[in-house]
Specification:
The complex is a heterodimer of chains A (386) and B (143).
Chain A: E1 4-11, H1 22-37, E2 46-50, H2 61-69, E3 75-79, H3 85-98, E4 104-112, H4 118-126, H5 131-136, H6 142-157, H7 161-175, H8 189-193, E5 197-200, E6 202-203, E7 212-221, H9 222-228, E8 233-242, H10 257-270, E9 279-281, H11 287-296, H12 305-310, H13 327-331, H14 335-351, E10 365-372, E11 377-384
Parallel strand pairs in A: 2-3, 2-4, 9-10
Antiparallel strand pairs in A: 1-7, 1-8, 4-7, 5-6, 8-11, 10-11
Chain B: H1 25-32, E1 37-41, E2 47-48, E3 63-67, E4 71-80, E5 93-100, E6 105-109, E7 123-130, E8 136-142
Antiparallel strand pairs in B: 1-2, 1-3, 4-5, 4-7, 5-6, 7-8
Classes of the chains: A alpha/beta (386), B mainly beta (143).
Bound molecules: zinc ion.
Chain lengths: 386, 143
């Protein structure tokens, strides 16, 4: 089977970006990724744009982004998999090369969430489930969905609110090393624990912010990737799965079925085991989500995620460093951009270009875990130096 | 914060949806009488909640309505403090997922319970509420 590699990466500054339009924001990443890959932009046969949308003025983000960057004419589409839209874009771009349609494809993730007021953003994300049965009468919010999981995990495994806050402290420690992160300040456990409750037991510091941002990756076929790059980062495994819209139709609330299934597929395709992973990004839209990811990815046994964070096993120097870019919590979570941003981060790590937050690379294997909604969509991608 | 110049759009968008309920009308009618019913597939016997006319298990299209009872056990919950824009008038509320006697689960507000007393495993009852304009909804209350 032929292979596909990441040969170019680009990443904007994340945060409240009142200085740029959607097109201008996407261009920041597209330009870097095209330059990094060293391709002629006219050779990009497929541009897949990951964006959830609804909070910015454009209805057709893909064509707006492409027009601004002079990419009109390429095959394109906008893909939506909620907060995993970015990974869905990477997968669609990957598929177009694997199928032989094109030798070069680009995945662009972009979101502008701050052009509407915060209550409206909260409203739009709160509808990310089953509208009539969860929102119309009950006003679910995104933190509320994950809080239901947090309570169940705490009840079953003795995970504590402090354990949740520890994830946030770690995120901010690494976010402080990332010049593109929305928050670049360390925080204390006391500050996280003392922050206002959003949806008990989740507090402000358990939640990712509303963000604007973009990220892009240029992918190439095996033959071309070897010509273009001395350090192509190969996409070795892609696993994806989904779950019910209604949370009431889930078996339990201590892990995400879709993530377990996506991980199993990705590991099998890449022929690697969880223990082979040198560095990972895990979808920490809320702190509980990162803890469940450790278990769903097989980084630890079910119920032992709190032990992992307490022992520092997911920090640099630990067994599997996770979210060394600050994660969604500190780096920011522009929904459609996140999955692509994760692929950018793992590519940097495997190239040895992550600077102050570089993980030790032993096996040359990195992993992206990207969840849409509350485990509604799950994408796990394994990247490798060889 | 917004020192950058902005074009504040003059064109607003006000979205309100008319959602068809003809296939689940019996559910809403029964709820007005305080009963929680749902759809049971005539072909494979699968009971769905929320109700749906077409079976997600075997794709069969024939079903009957069955009574799910009003006894429930709390599985998980959260106390929502920061509410969506359209719930601004509601103040904080508690959302629970509870298991019905049949093993099916439902999500709804939990009303009338002291926050400190809410725990997984607590016994609940399903109760009907009037949402206005003839639209009922269901909540959980302590048993
Ligand atoms: Zn059936």
């Amino acid at each position: 089977m032929s292979r596909v590699a990441v040969v170019g990466i680009g990443h904007s500054r994340f945060g409240k970006r009142t200085d740029v339009t959607l097109g201008e924001l996407a261009f920041e990443s597209i330009k870097q990724a095209v330059d990094d890959a060293g391709v002629d932009k006219g050779d990009i046969g497929n541009v897949v744009v990951g964006s959830a949308g609804g909070w910015y003025e454009e209805s057709l983000p893909a064509v707006v982004v492409n027009e601004y960057a002079g990419l009109s004419g390429a095959g394109t589409m906008r893909v939506e998999a909620a907060c995993a839209s970015g990974s869905a874009a990477v997968k669609a771009a990957y598929n177009s090369i694997m199928s032989g349609e094109t030798d070069v494809a680009m995945a662009v993730g972009v979101e502008k969430m701050t052009e509407v007021d915060t209550p409206t953003s909260v409203e739009l994300i709160g509808r990310a489930g089953s509208y009539v049965w969860e929102f119309e009468n009950y006003g679910m919010t995104f933190p509320a969905y994950y809080a239901l999981y947090a309570v169940a995990h705490m009840n079953k495994f003795g995970t504590t609110e402090e354990d949740l806050s520890r994830v946030s402290v770690k995120a901010h420690r690494y976010g402080a090393m990332n010049p593109l992160a929305q928050f670049q300040k360390e925080i204390t456990l006391e500050k996280a624990m003392g922050s206002p409750v959003v949806s008990w037991p989740l507090k402000l510091y358990d939640a990712c912010p509303l963000s604007d941002g973009s990220a892009a990756v240029v992918l190439a076929s095996e033959e071309l990737a070897k010509k273009l790059s001395d350090t192509p980062i190969w996409i070795k495994g892609v696993g994806y799965s989904s779950d019910t819209a209604n949370l009431s139709r889930r078996d339990d609330y201590v892990g995400l079925r879709a993530a377990v299934s996506a991980a199993a597929k990705a590991y099998a395709m890449a022929k690697v085991a969880p223990g082979d992973v040198d560095v990972a990004t895990a979808h920490d839209c809320f702190t509980i989500a990162e803890l469940m990811a450790y278990e769903d990815l097989g980084f630890c046994k079910k119920g032992e995620a709190a032990k992992m964070i307490r022992e520092g096993q997911t920090e640099i120097g630990g067994r599997i460093p996770v979210n060394l870019d600050g994660g969604l919590k500190a780096k920011g979570h522009p929904i459609g951009a996140t999955g692509v941003s994760m692929a950018v981060e793992i590519t940097k790590q495997l190239r040895g270009e992550a600077g102050k937050h570089q993980a030790p690379i032993r096996n040359g294997v990195g992993l992206v875990h990207n969840i849409g909604g509350t485990g509604h969509y799950a994408y796990v991608t394994v990247l490798s130096r060889d | 914060m917004d020192e950058n110049p902005q074009l504040h759009s003059r064109r607003t968008l006000n979205l309100r949806f008319d959602i068809p309920i003809s296939k689940t009308q019996e559910f809403w009618e029964a709820l007005k009488k305080g009963k929680l019913v749902s759809t049971k597939c005539m072909k494979c016997g699968n009971v769905s909640f929320p109700p749906q006319a077409d079976c997600p298990k075997c794709m069969g299209g024939e079903f009957e309505w069955v009574d799910l009872g009003t006894d429930a056990t709390l599985v998980t919950f959260t106390h929502v403090r920061v509410t969506p824009a359209s719930f601004a008038a509601n103040g904080p509320y508690t959302i629970a997922i509870a298991e019905l006697e049949s093993g099916l689960k439902a999500l709804a507000w939990l009303e009338g319970a002291e926050q400190q007393s809410v725990k997984p495993g607590m016994k609940l009852k399903v109760a009907a509420r009037d949402g206005g304009e003839g639209n009922p909804y269901y909540v959980f209350v302590p048993a």
